[in-house]
Amino acid sequence: MATSTDLKPGLSTAAPDASRHPLDPLSAAELQQAVQILESGNHLAGDVRIASLNLIEPPKRLIETNPPGARFERTAMAVLLDRGKRTSYEAVVDLTANSVTSVTELSSGIQPSIMLDEFSECEQAVRRSPLFRDALQKRGVTDANLVMVEPWSAGMYGNELPEDQGLRRMRALCFVRSEPRDNGYARPVDSMVVVVDLYRMEVIRIEEYESAPLPPEPGNWSREYIPNTRTGLKPIDIVQPEGASFTVQGNQVQWQKWKFRVGFTSREGLVLHTIGYDDDGVERPILYRASICEMVVPYGDPGEQYYRKNAFDIGEYGLGTLANSLSLGCDCLGVIHYFDFPQVDSHGKVTSLKNAVCLHEEDFGVLWKHTDWRTGQSEVRRSRRLSVSFIATVGNYEYAFYWYFYQDGSIQCEIKLTGIMNTTALSPGEKPVYGMEVAPQLNAPFHQHIFAARLVTSVDGSNNSVYEVNSVGVPTGPTNPHGNAFKAEETLLATEKEAQRRVNSATARFWRVVNPSKKNRLGRATGYRLVPGENCPPLVQPDAEIMRRAGFTSNHVWVTPYRPEERYAAGEYPNQHPTGDGLPNWTKANRNVDDTEITLWYVFAHNHVPRPEDWPVMPAAMLGFQFRPDGFFERSPAMDVPPPPPKACCH
Ligand SMILES: [Cu+2]
After folding, report:
1. Could you tell me whether strands 99-105 and 147-153 are parallel, antiparallel, or unpaired per DSSP bridges?
2. CA–CA separation, 188 vs 301, rounded Å?
3. 257-269, pLDDT tens digit by residue?
4. How far is the CA of 185 from the centre of ligand 1 (A)?
5. How does residue 328 score in pLDDT terms, banded at 50, 70 and 90?
6. Residues 272, 411: contact at Cβ < 8 Å?
7. Sign of torsion over alpha carbons 61, 64, 67, 72
8. Lateral strand order in the sheet of 99-105
9. Residue positions annotated with a catalytic role
10. Residue 421 CA to ligand 1 centre (angstroms)
11. pTM of the full predicted structure?
């Protein structure tokens, strides 16, 4: 879970420092100033909490056209929740003018994301409840202190009970540890779900379901439970005697012709801005903004207590809020630059998340190689990549997000999934239909982890178009007498409807983002290729209730005209959203996406059919995508990578 350290007292709340970059996240001083402005305007009185507080990024055009050093306004968006009045607000805070510009009440039924404090407050509310104690007693659980209460977002399914209407809710699942440091997920008490009203922080009811006994085995993972570890590992030291090859100035990173900015929001965590490549002295833009903007984890068990398990870990919880402090472990090796980012809690207390983002270089095997067997010439180049990453803990799971930059102009996004699977209990002899028995009487339900990347492309400039490329065989006939012919067919995706696409391994499908007004020396528009990795369609039915909010998962690719306010694939407020919002809603207008400023959305899924080997802590599963130059350069941009020094090679 997030580890924060308090800021030193006496922190300045002075006006924003003009020397900072306009895309920099709000500093600790700016966050404190924003809280102060809200307080003095009486916007935090009574039972008002801050659900989120982030920079409103300046307009893209301003960033692209303004010379360095120009002065920018600094404005923040605070999402406020008034528990007493059961209303929520968006407050725009002008840090330059030291004032609140506007306060807009959110429509009835719209719920801001769940605040970190609410998880613990919800757990305390459950523990206080006599209903909870009675339910435990009924199940023979004698020590309530050993019960692990895990609040989940409640969602909105259109079948909510009258008593639930208009409430801000969570649904808590329960597990029982056999001792305080035991792995609770080994013993699910899934015959009960505790429904909590977060406005009053009170248990509304406990839903009772068919009961299965606690599974018999522990599933412990912390080191004191593993007395015997394997032997035979000799040290590997990553040594960079001359330091790292990157330079960092504020939040700007430069490495091997790459230049980009590192940002962070409470919702997305890591955000990359203004990614460009120095091509022989010319700085060529590629991506204006890149982030993983939403994710949802739908579980496939139709049981009454399970079908609402569909957490939107970004839109409902916030990955920046749940980010780890990477100083605690060995998350990265080598010469590391860590970025700290400030955080603000729901009461307006500002803290610093140390080492939130890790930047380091990695050796990545062979970059290119050729041996001419006739002449004996042989050349090999090793690939060095730059890794920018952060890790978030969302309840039982860890999500590690990596963006890699390569010397051949490629960018890769990789997500590692690890942590502990959510579990349910089985009766002796029972075999699950919608999950896998991973330990005796312990079921891990089938589920999917579906991510949405939001890529504001700027391939060689602002106006881009997207082509889909399908490789197709030509029927045997006069033009293909030997049946061997196949071609790569390019289709322009000119409108939002045309640009709603899925992956297709049968045609090795990929997408090419081009700048129609920039041609390479071969006469083709310069471009970058979106290369999908592991993916699959959503397995819930199109008419499943969850698809109202998770409609973005119905396509793997969406292209929309760039709109700064269209930020998240499932909309701004997926928590309990009554109708759902985001991509399916915006794209109804079927706007033009040809030769204009665009946002490319790539949705990708890890389909998790659990294995016993995923228990008790899942070895990391990896998925992601690449963004590779495709006609962007005149030839391989990696030819000038120098050979490795002779002493680096062993023979
Ligand atoms: Cu999983």
Report:
1. unpaired
2. 15
3. 999 999 999 999 9
4. 14
5. low
6. no
7. positive
8. 48-56, 75-82, 87-94, 99-105
9. 313, 397
10. 6
11. 0.95
